[in-house]
Amino acid sequence: MDHLQNISMISVYAIPAFLVLMAVEFVAYRRERRDAVGEPRRDAVDEPRRDAVGEPRRDAVGEPRRDAVGEARSGRNKAGVSARDVTTSLSIYGIGRVVKPLDKFIELPVVAVAAALTPVTLSASQWWVWALALVLADLAYYAKHRMSHRVRLFWTGHSVHHSSQYFNLSTAVRLPWLIPGSFLMSVVYVPLALIGIPVWMIFLAQSIVLLYQFPIHTERVDRLPRLVEFVFNTPSHHRVHHGANNPYLDKNYGGILIVWDRIFGSYADEVEPVRFGLTTNIDTFNPVKVNYHEFAAMVGDAWRAETWRGRVGYLLNPPGWSEKTAPTTKPTSRPGPHVLEAVG
Fold first, then answer.
1. Which domain of life is it from (predicted)?
2. Which alpha helices (H) appear in 216-258, and where do they start and end?
3. Cα 133 from Cα 124, distance rounded (Å)
């Protein structure tokens, strides 16, 4: 129990580092803005420009135009950072710090029961047990992450993380809390317990996988050396994951290692500008609405369904599935990407 209490404090100890890095990134964007246009902006660093009646100005293809906050060396257009968006992300994180432990009351017993049932126990004194725990926890995260995109019940929680139309360090802490059904994904860690990895080590490895991903939520780092890009999840890979444009939907689920995506066919390279957010954005900065918007939409769809098949389908099929467009016979080819999911 002492081990678990210490592990729960890791994210608390990391908060000062999170805040400092977010502040540095925010200031860097402001300086770029100042250099580009000669004067700082009062609110957002990179908000869409608006016309005389308050509507976003749009370019030739209908996309909102953005102020020139500077472009990456590779020529990518940066989404930048918005003060209101950062505030929303931090508000969601702050609420989560208070209520998130309630989720662990369900997740922890599931893994602990599995550990109690297995006759196998691996020793934490062996280095290879630590390595095994981290690799398997990363693989379990990949499975969990992929499920959170392909099952709408799980997407109701994960969509919160993808709801920002920006991609910066504050996006990393935009994490859902108290979404019914999300705890079911904790079963991905049961195999680790069944092979004898101590429960506290499983949750420590899980924390390491999550902490690794904080600094890769950024546009300020371009591509890393080829070998690093081949093996590890990098800012470039994770930008793809957060992309709402078609080439990038449902790609790059890896936590620490990107090799899982290469093995299981979910890898995509960053080859064109990424549009961040959801395919249908929610356009709100209210943290409660952001946290529960997709869950409320799913419940509404299930309530209005005409059959039990439809009700179950709205829960367990991919986001974007519709009772009215569902095939009545076995499809002859794999369906295309869903239309409501962002990228995660």
1. Bacteria
2. 226-231, 235-241
3. 10
Asked, for residue 244, whether it belongs to a domain, the answer is yes
Q: Range of 105's domain?
A: 101-264
Does position 249 have pLDDT exceeding 90, yes or no?
Answer: yes
Whether 265 and 193 have beta carbons less than 8 Å apart is answered as no
Residue indicated by tokens 């995109």: 149
How big is the CA angle at 185 (ends 150 and 1), to the nearest 5 degrees? 160
Q: Length of the chain in residues, anyone?
A: 344
Cβ-contact 291, 152 below 8 angstroms: no
Tell me if 227 sits within 8 A of 234, measured CB to CB.
no
For the ranges 30-39, 163-172, 287-296, which has the lowest average pLDDT? 30-39
In a domain, 325, yes or no: no
How many helices (H) and strands (E) the chain has is answered by 13, 0
For residue range 36-67, what is the model confidence (pLDDT) as tens digits? 665 544 444 445 444 444 444 444 444 444 43
Residue range 278-304: mean pLDDT, rounded: 96
Is pTM beyond 0.90? Reply is: no
Residue given tokens 């700082």 in the structure block: 40
Half-sphere exposure of 20 (CA within 13 A, CB side): 5
Residues 6+ apart with CB under 8 A from 269: 240
Count the domains in the chain: 1
The secondary structure of 180-217 as a DSSP string is TTGGGGGGGGHHHHHTT--HHHHHHHHHHHHHHTSTTS
